[in-house]
Write a structure and sequence with these properties.
There is one protein chain. The chain is an alpha+beta fold. It has 2 domains: 3-89, PH-domain like (Roll); 130-359, no CATH class. The chain has helices at 73-82, 92-102, 106-119, 121-127, 130-145, 154-168, 201-206, 210-225, 228-237, 239-247, 252-257, 269-285, 291-303, 323-326, 330-334, 352-359, and strands at 3-8, 16-23, 26-31, 34-40, 44-46, 56-60, 63-70, 150-151, 178-182, 189-192, 196-200. α6 (154-168) packs across α16. Bound molecules: zinc ion.
């Protein structure tokens, strides 16, 4: 039996009519502009618990931002009677608790927030308070580096500051960032919410000159400037983000509830293009030779067997994966990285001593 429902894909604030039917362990739905989609019932999550007389909203682990809104009571009953896990979820009672902690008006705010979170992740990411971005960013970093040592030496820290200062030359509008190095072998760099940029020891060891690391840093600052980590987090966690923001809780639930924290860092190719474009422009304004980023990408891509896919070699690395898994399509992007215009003299990013101090920051 097929019944009518509404589908939001989580990307656009547009509802689409679909018909939906249960088929064995799956629900199947399609509509005039929705291709046939199969969601396993085991992967369904209620957005809030089913309540008589209310539409039942569910999302799916394969597409956390998407929502199906089902109004057919008989269909809802059939689903939840047979699948206990569909009875849970964030409840209005929970939001009520939040309201009790933080004062009135919160439920109304939550309702507005819910709409925002569901349909406009970029907008939500842009209005998240900085203290929240910082707290969640710390948790994301801690979760991803998994107790690895944070590397610090006075000379290494000075070299990091010098590199950031060179990038900021000619770029007064760079977003605030921090750059930390962790003692991890895998070759990667990533940006977490709150402008927290992490480099691994592995990526520093792989670099032959400061322009290469400056290029990767500029690329990660591009992710920060576009709020890509925050957008991804809002997409993946939806309403929980709002609850955390409003209740002032530390967001601990957020990162522990994400099945694979590393998916936070798996950006679309479009996001990578945006970060690359930002990096190129930033390096040009700062007179840093962008070919450093290019040679670095080429070097990694050669060593990893030229894979440009987001799987493959990445699976042999730790939870974060290597730079391929978190920065897809490097091979395709290399050709867009061009040298400084003729006549523009490149600056020296770091002195040889500073470069050595940065490369060996994990050695002590
Ligand atoms: Zn990237």
């Amino acid at each position: 039996m097929a019944i009518d429902a509404i589908y939001f894909d989580g990307e656009y604030a547009r509802d689409r009519a679909v018909t939906i039917a249960a088929q064995g362990s799956e629900i199947v739905f399609s509509g005039p502009d929705v291709p046939e989609t199969r969601w396993s019932i085991a992967g369904l999550h209620p957005v809030d618990p089913p309540t008589s007389g209310q539409p039942f909203r569910v999302t799916h682990s394969s597409k956390p931002g998407a929502r199906l809104v089902i109004r057919d009571e008989a269909f809802i009953r059939g689903l939840i009677d047979n699948h206990r896990h569909l009875r849970g979820g964030y409840s209005w009672a929970h939001l009520g608790q939040v309201a009790a902690w933080t004062g009135g008006g919160i439920v109304a705010l939550a309702a507005i927030g819910y709409v925002l979170v569901s349909f406009l992740p970029q907008k939500v990411a842009n209005i998240l308070p900085d203290d929240w971005r910082n707290r969640v960013g710390d948790q994301v970093v801690n979760g991803l580096v998994n107790k690895a040592r944070r590397c610090e030496t006075p000379a290494g820290n000075a070299a990091k500051s010098a590199m950031i200062a060179v990038l900021a030359e000619g770029n007064p509008d760079l977003p605030p960032i921090s750059m930390e190095v962790y003692d991890m072998q895998l070759v990667n760099a990533f940006a977490a919410p709150g402008g927290k940029i992490v480099f691994t020891r592995g990526i520093l060891e792989k670099a032959d000159k400061p322009e290469e690391i400056a290029g990767v840093l500029a690329h990660e600052i591009g992710h920060v400037a576009h709020r890509h980590p925050e957008v991804q987090l809002v997409r993946l966690t939806g309403l929980q983000v709002l609850i955390s923001v409003m209740s002032g809780s530390n967001g601990g639930d957020i990162t522990s509830n994400i099945a694979a924290l590393a998916t936070l860092l798996q950006y679309s190719r479009e996001a990578e293009r945006e970060a690359d474009a930002f990096a190129l422009e930033t390096m040009q304004k700062a007179s840093i030779d962008p070919m450093g980023l290019r040679t670095f990408f080429e070097k990694i891509s050669k060593e990893e067997g030229g894979s440009s896919s987001s799987s493959g070699p990445a699976s042999t690395f730790g939870k974060i994966g290597n730079i391929f898994s978190t920065h897809p399509g490097i091979n395709d992007r290399i050709k867009n990285i061009t040298p400084l215009p003729a006549g523009q003299v490149p600056v020296q990013v770091l002195t040889p001593e500073q470069w050595q101090a940065l490369k060996t920051i994990c050695a002590s």
